From TrEMBL, chains A, B:
InterPro entries: Ald_DH/histidinol_DH, Ald_DH_C, Ald_DH_N, Aldehyde_DH_dom, Glu-5-SA_DH, GPR_dom
Subcellular localization: Cytoplasm
Protein name: Gamma-glutamyl phosphate reductase
Reactions catalysed according to its record: L-glutamate 5-semialdehyde + phosphate + NADP(+) = L-glutamyl 5-phosphate + NADPH + H(+)
Gene3D superfamilies found in the cross-reference section: Aldehyde Dehydrogenase, Chain A, domain 1, Aldehyde Dehydrogenase, Chain A, domain 2
Annotated organism of origin: Allohahella marinimesophila
Keyword set, alphabetical order: Amino-acid biosynthesis, Cytoplasm, NADP, Oxidoreductase, Proline biosynthesis
Main location (coarse class): cytoplasm
Length: 428, 428
């Protein structure tokens, strides 16, 4: 891998990225025929290499941390950049867990005979080459690489430039492991330039890259989605809703609302809005108001909400769209299920919504009509997660409707092709 | 529906398309909760309306045909534009067949309990609003509308401007049928302006349109894919290959090659390239050469091919990429399976490829390693078709890897959301 100086002309970055893409495409062909064992062995070998390289990883990370401090990165970014011993442990454990998951590749399903005599079905195959664009979190390098490798995809990883030393140290571990496992070194490549033009190239090489997975803030993801000439599997942040129906069980409503909001504030499956049927508002709102207040959660309510919760501030229109990622919740008293569905389909980010109700018909309507990637009855929105859903791993949560929707596990990194068995069959 | 004059300013087209999009989004909400019976009744009502409107359909079509002749449309385009009585019959039959298909919507699958106690699975749901952009073929209007309606999607149809009168006559039938079935008239809308700016608007309204399906020539599809801000389900044309392996049964190889090439010349699943293992070239090429010659098929061969078929012209590099859609075939003698896979993955349009062999291991490798939407063993490439695969209907063939790949039936017009059943479950 060649280093490109920061003065590199645009053409140099383009030529470099083209060579990276070309090598990835070739590696993806080899990966498509690599056995389950070869791919799992490579994952375990990366784990071993990381374990043996704690010194050099720490040293590379110290360079990034020092440069980050010098350039005035804030505390949260520095925290994400740091490669602590326990984070290295977590990367190693993660690799072993991914190696132990069932292989999604090669699964043949739905084979059936047609009247013509041919037998038709589907075979699960890798997507090919996946480009991952993410911020300065070195542990994402290993996590993303492992899921792509497991699913038989070649990967081009473009992490934040602040983490370049750490990522290159990780890249050395990965290269050594791939070599020892007999896999093409280009099966996992880390973009070795801090030049931002590299991202522009990566997302406009449809001949070499099959899918882009951007991970990071909303701004990054929106920019990449707008400019990409390659399909993007997005996981955006979430404005998730809990709707407490007139027939809710109050105990469940309290537990689910409180857990959905307060279990963690910074996650995309945290509830940001609470809708309450007017018929149950008087019974429910004072109780949940008290619990949320005790937990330090600020309530921004509609006029009716503020009648029951005089301490609440007034919600503005913008609050219904807001993903706070903070101890704040928007609360609205509504006239019933129709308004709840209408409100959610209008303001939600289509991530996760939950109805609390004992009413069969309304539960069924909510499930059918709410247009979000996860729709729940009597459960906390915090369950919207690849591990909780049993996917074994998660590369993110997709709020798009095509291909993968909701938590995206290994299957989301695959495609299916049709396969046909004949015995000399021709079409009449 | 308002008519926009041809002098309409860009803003007028934009405002008009926004209103179309907004109405489609609202209609899609109603369709998402419409019962199976309502949607099927609407399909049957459209069939009835078309049957009762043969006069007005013919009259509208005569206007389009006359204008087409005046503006010098070529014979092939005029043929596609014409709405003959038998084409109207075919549209009516098609609607009844789609109504009789199983409903894809609402299917719940893979519900399983997780260690936390929640029960998680998937529900099949419509995509929402589908924009269809196609050329001047009025029968496509009915076909596309019926598949979208069946799968619970609202549709915005933008046909070629040469067919506008015919399409508006069809639109009247559809509107009357929707009204009589209690569905929102905006469930199917036909863009009522010949202004080409309408296409530009349609593909850049992600708030109102979930997917674009372009149907037509490669140029149209490439342009739309490039400019669209909405995901595109593409069906491009095909450069399909037949590979005759060293262990091919000669009788099967002859039948499959001949059928794949000559059954129909103008279809995307027609074979355009033939690869022959050198070990079987001497036995196979003279025989297939004779049959193809008798059928009037021109052969463009590599040097080795021309040793066995002296009449063949010399293939140029461009021939390996070519989709002839004509009685021409490119023929290459190759060294074996590795070269076959390499050649196909390099030159193919990733549509459909077939190996003819009795060899188990090579059949298996071909299936696994050829990166196309349909991969076959001992069967004609002409089988790559939604009806032949048992999908019941086909909106096109996707050569993309995300979402729908290969023949796209009703399922390709749907998405799946996760559903979660709890009983007050919260995350610990």
């Amino acid at each position: 891998m060649t280093t490109v100086s920061s003065e590199a002309a645009q053409q140099d970055v383009q030529a470099y990225m083209q060579s990276v893409g070309k090598a990835a495409r070739a590696a993806s062909r080899q990966l498509a025929r690599a056995s389950t064992k070869m791919r799992n062995d490579a994952l375990l070998a990366i784990a071993e290499q990381l374990g043996n390289s704690r010194e050099s990883l720490a040293e590379a990370n110290r360079l990034d941390m020092a440069a980050g401090r010098d350039s005035g990165l804030d505390a949260a970014l520095l925290d994400r950049l740091e490669l602590t011993p326990s984070r290295i442990d977590a990367m190693i454990t993660g690799l072993r867990e991914v190696a132990a998951l069932p292989d999604p590749i090669g699964e043949i399903s739905d084979m059936s005979y047609r009247p013509s005599g041919i037998q038709v079905g589907k075979m699960r195959v890798p997507l090919g080459v996946i480009g991952i664009i993410y911020e300065s979190r070195p542990n994402v390098t290993v996590e993303a690489a492992s899921l792509c490798l497991k699913s038989g995809n070649a990967t081009i990883l473009r992490g934040g430039s602040e983490a370049l030393h750490s990522n290159l140290a990780i890249a050395e571990c990965i290269s050594a492991a791939l070599a020892s496992s007999g896999l093409d070194a280009a099966a996992v490549q880390i973009v070795n330039t801090a030049d931002r033009a590299a991202v522009g190239e990566l997302i406009t090489m449809p001949d070499y890259v099959d899918v882009i997975v951007p991970r990071g803030g909303k701004g990054l993801i929106e920019r990449i989605s707008r400019d990409s000439k390659v399909p993007v599997i997005k996981h955006l942040d979430g404005n998730c809703h809990v709707y407490v129906d007139a027939d809710a069980d109050l105990t469940k409503a309290l537990a689910i609302t409180f857990n959905s909001k307060t279990h963690r504030y910074g996650t995309c499956n945290t509830a940001e809005s609470l809708l309450v049927d007017a018929a149950i508002a008087e019974a429910f709102l004072p109780q949940i108001g008290e619990r949320l207040k005790a937990a330090g959660v600020e309530i921004r309510g509609c006029d009716q909400t503020r009648r029951y919760l005089p301490d609440a501030s007034a919600a503005a229109e913008a609050d219904w769209f807001e993903e706070y990622l903070a101890p704040i919740i928007a609360v609205k008293v509504i006239s019933g299920l129709d308004e709840a569905i209408e409100h959610i389909n209008t303001y939600s980010s289509h991530h996760t919504e939950s109805i609390v109700t004992e009413n069969y018909t309304r539960a069924r309507r909510f499930l059918t009509e709410v247009d979000s990637s996860s729709v729940m009855v009597n459960a906390s929105t915090r369950f919207a997660d690849g591990f909780e859903y049993g996917l074994g791993a998660e590369i993110g949560i997709s709020t798009d409707k095509l291909h993968a929707r909701g938590p995206v596990g290994l299957q989301g990194l695959t495609s299916q092709k049709y396969i046909v068995f004949g015995d000399g069959h021709i079409r009449g």
